[in-house]
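help with this record:
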Amino acid sequence: MRPLTLAATAVLTTLSATAVQALPSSFPTGTTVYDPERAYNGYVLFPGGDRKTHLIDMNGNEVHRWDHESFPPVPLGTARDSGEPGHVLVQLARAETLPEHASPGNGLTNASVAELDWAGDVQWQWGSQDAPVYQHHDMHRAENGHTLVLTADLREINGLDFEIIDNAIEEVNAEGDVVWSWSVGDHLDALGFSDTRLRALKDAEDPDFLHLNTAVPLGPNRWYEAGDERFAPDNILVNSRNANVTFIVDHDSDEVVWQIGPDFPALQLNGELGRAVDQTVGSHDTHLIPEGLPGAGNLLIFDNQGNAGFPPSKQGFFSSSRVIEVDPSTHEIVWQYTGSQSGRAPYSFYSSFISSARRLPNGNTLIDEGQNGRLFQVTPEGEIVWEYVSPYFGKSMPNDDYVTNQVYRAQLVDYDWAPEGTPREETPVVPDCERYIAAPGCEPDA
C-alpha cells in the first residue's frame, strides 16, 4: 500500500439541525483503494476545500490545478470550446458587495463565471464586480455554444409575505447576452405543493425554501426518440434541494412538463427494486444518464436523506444516503447504491448536503460523498474498486471558523480530455487490513 498522508485537522461537521456526525481528528487521505483492472480509469476533476479546482489521476496525484473556486467545475468538450483540451468553467470571483440573506450556500455571493484554458487564462467571462450575476450550484455549456447558468436574486411574490431568494436559469451567448431565462418564482403553482406544504412553507418564512441545485439540458435520449416531447434534448431538468421536487422545463413554452415530488411515499427500507420512487430528501446532481452509457436515459440521483421539505421529511433511524437510478417513464427505482451494498453499516455512506454520482462507461458509478471529501467508484453490485479522500482542506464557507475537505461535485474525464503529455499513474493500491480493518477488500475476523 502506498504511504498515505494524514490530515491532522479536527473536523466536527454539523449535518442538520438535528444530526451531528463526528469524524476522527486524523485519517488517511489520497487514494486508499484502487483496482486498475476493475475501475474505470481517467482523471478526476473536483473542487477542493481550499477553494481551488483540482485534477488528479487514479493514484491521487494532482496533475493540474486552477487557482479558482468551482461550484461546480465543468469540463468542456473540445467541440464546444476553442478546440483545445483542458478547458473548464469555474467561478472567477466572489461579489464584493453582498445583498441581504447572502451566503455561499444560497448563491448570492458570486460575481462572475468564466471559461479558463489549461493555463488558467480567461477565454470567456460573464459577470463582474460592477454587474454581479450571482451564479450558484450549476452551469453547463450547451450544444449551440451558449452557457446555461443557475442564478439567484431577491424578490417578492404573490402569496408569500416575506422576500424570497428566487432562482433563475439564464442562457447566455458568447457575447454575454442573456438570450433566454426562466424564473422558478413565476411557476410555483406548477410544482405541486399541497395546501399543507404551502402552510408549512409560509410558517417557516425561509427565503431559500426552493434552493435549486441542478439545471441541466436533457440532451439526446431514448424517450424523445420514442416520441415523448417532454424529453426534448433542449428541455431543462431542474432539481429543488429544499423542496424535494425534480422537474423538466420546456425550453420553448417555459412550462413544467414532467416532475417527481414534492409528495413521495414513505421510504422503503427493504431496498427492493422496481418500486416507485420513495422519499428523497435534499437530493443533488439529478441528471439523465447520457447516451452511450449503461442505463442511458434513466435518472441518476444522489439522494442525501439529509433535512429538507415542508414540513421536513422524517429521517430514518440511521443517517444514511443512497444513489438511485430511476426510470423516468414509470418513476420506478431500477438500481440503487447504499453503504450496505459494500458490506458496511448503512451510516458508513452519508452526506447530508452537496455530493454527486456519475455513471461510467464500464457500468461503474463514481460517487462523491461530499461532506467528507470522499470519492469512490462502485461496481453495479456495490463493490468499491477505487477510493480517494481529498487532502485539500480550507474554510469552504468563509463565515465559518472550521476547516473541511468537502467536495461539491466530482467528475471523471477521459485521459484525452487533458493536453497530451499530462502525467498519470495506474498503480494498484491495496489497503493494509491490519491497520484498516473495515477497508474495502478486508475481511474482519468473526
